[in-house]
Amino acid sequence: MSAPILTVQGLEVDFTGSGRPVPVIRGVDFEVHPNEILCIVGESGSGKSVTALAATGLLPDTARVRGQVRLGQTEVIGAPAEVLRRMRGDEVGFIFQDPTTTLNPVLPVGRQITEGQVAHGRLRQADAPRRAAELLAEVDIADPEGRVRQYPHQFSGGMRQRAVIAMAMAGKPRLIIADEPTTALDVTVQAQVLDLLRRRQAETGAAIILITHDLGVVAEVADRVAVMYAGRIVETGPVDELFANPRHPYTTALLESLPRLDTSGARLDPIPGQPPVPGAFPEGCAFHPRCRLAKGQPRCATEDPALRALGGGQAAACHFAERNAAPKPPAELRAPIGESGGSDAPLLEIDDLKVHFPLRSRILRLTRGHVRAVDGVSLTVRAGETVSLVGESGCGKTTTGRAVMGLIPVSGGDIRFEGRSVVGLRRQAMRAVRRNMQYIFQDPFSSLNPVLPVEDIVAEPLRIHGLFEQFGGARYIAELFDMVGLSAQMFGRYPREFSGGQKQRIGIARALALKPRLVILDEPVAALDVSIQAQILNLLQDLQRDLGLGYLFIAHNLSVVRQISDRVAVMYLGRIVEESARDALYETPTHPYTQSLLSAVPVPEPRGRETRQRIVLTGEIPNPAAPPPGCTFHPRCFRASDLCRGEIPAFRAYPGLPTRSACHHAGPLAESEAVAGRKEATR
Q1: Between helices 592-600 and 671-682, what is the axis angle to 10°?
Q2: CA 276/CA 230 separation, integer angstroms
Q3: Considering only CA atoms, which of 273, 263, 250 is closest in space to residue 334?
Q4: If we measure between CA atoms, which residue out of 158, 175, 260, 161 comes closest to residue 219?
Q5: Residue 482 domain boundaries
Q6: Which bin fits 483, alpha (ψ -120 to 50), beta or left (φ > 0)?
Q7: Contacts of residue 534, Cβ cutoff 8 Å, sequence gap at least 6
Q8: Which helix (DSSP H) or strand (DSSP E) does residue 422 occupy?
Q9: What is the pLDDT of residues 318-358, one digit of tens each?
Q10: Domains contained in the chain, number
Q11: At 187, which helix (H) or strand (E)?
Q12: Are residues 189 and 289 in the same domain?
């Protein structure tokens, strides 16, 4: 093996801003070599990002860093600022999680891509626009010469992330650090970004450190994996061995709590409890309060195990690594929770719903067109049933949910709740309807009032409707907290004092306060770690079973959707293009868009990834203000014909399946089509 590009030995990081040192990294050792992808995984707060920032000298002055970090020929810890600046310009490319905050909103994208190379004297200012266009072309952005003069807000999320990758690759660095580069992206854009990273690495021979909590992504791209918990690496090894035979109970628990495309409706097996916070790590093994092997083992509570080699390139920090069993197969792991299916009478009926936003001229404010955010959606949800809306960002999922709640005006069609139309209701009448319809938002922190204690946040809907005393006052709020797995002892705390998963539970308690019959869940687990995500999904399924709730579940994570749904509707550019019972849609999708979405989902099984067929969609979703003629999906479709380009397909039943599909050429995916789609996508 060639010499490592990055060597980290005995890395320790404390933060001293609070007055006393808070240990965050507690002795980390690893190497990364040329042409290698090392994935660092673990729950939020485990120290992944701090490790990467320490390795590149980017931590603030409040951090006290000890140990040895060698990047190329530079000893990072203790190096002067100018040496670090030169090292980062020559050796490292950093891809941050949120491209919106990475890019300067007031500078053209092309200038930002090349400004580092110009600043380091590796590129003349006169040559910068041409070089920026070349780099944008290398990351598959159309019209690169025109795009270099545009600003970040004129790029889609996927294009911004590709621009950041172009920026990181501009100087052909030897090391690329990608910190959660696909977390907020749709599955199709995620597939494009991962494919791009692999291709660019192969072309340059760089080493990549990929930080993520998505084990499917790890299985798709990693050569080696390092699993972090409470500021330490607790297991490391080749990706095939680590997935097939994990040696640390934490790794096993992460794999067992993961929603998968090959299981549905069964109960997940989440890790109990919450990860510890820096400054309050347990004595002994930090994982022992949540570990299934530590019960009755006093050694785990008193002695912190060292990371030791176990053969096959694996190492684990566990006293009982030899006893840890491999994850059970999904079929054995997950006990069925029972089919809900829903009642016969519809609870919610959406009939040909349209939501069009006017485009107005700047000067005379005249309407010059409309954005067709939702353009003819029909859907029903029954009590006790979960219907999921899936699709890429911008397809109209959230707009549909907000229209149902009366949060945005409806342009056409009808919405009926329990047989009564709610379109155009006056404010007081709509408030009465909302007693039975509640909304759970994607970001629990921004949806919780930061200046109110959580008891008042959950009680607020009751006070608005004058029902606080009627429903039982503080005793009822305590019952709601218990129902969602929280304690009444938390009443006086504020949202900032809770973890992400706990904040989402508070949001669920607030939504249940009025005893609704329908709950709209807008990406409720998108920002959560896999273990906390499993806890919330189990909670939602338990509540539905106990209370008979109907769910309209909005998501882009297709593994999560399979876990919780009874029926699934796939949206594209404001319309539903396929709807079916959950298992029928996942096992026999008939629309090319659905087939492309499912094909792009990372599979948490690294063996066989090289031969796995993929249909990676290229291009962006068309502008909903100027949709393509005919079938709106035809510019990206591997089955498109002249008929598709000129005629809108009818939404009709597909023979032999409980499926309706809007496609002139609907049908199961043939293997030859998967190959053709993959070639077309990567051409």
Answers
A1: 70
A2: 7
A3: 263
A4: 260
A5: 346-572
A6: alpha
A7: 257, 258, 259, 268, 269, 270, 271
A8: none
A9: 999 988 766 665 544 444 444 445 557 899 999 999 999 98
A10: 4
A11: helix 187-204
A12: no
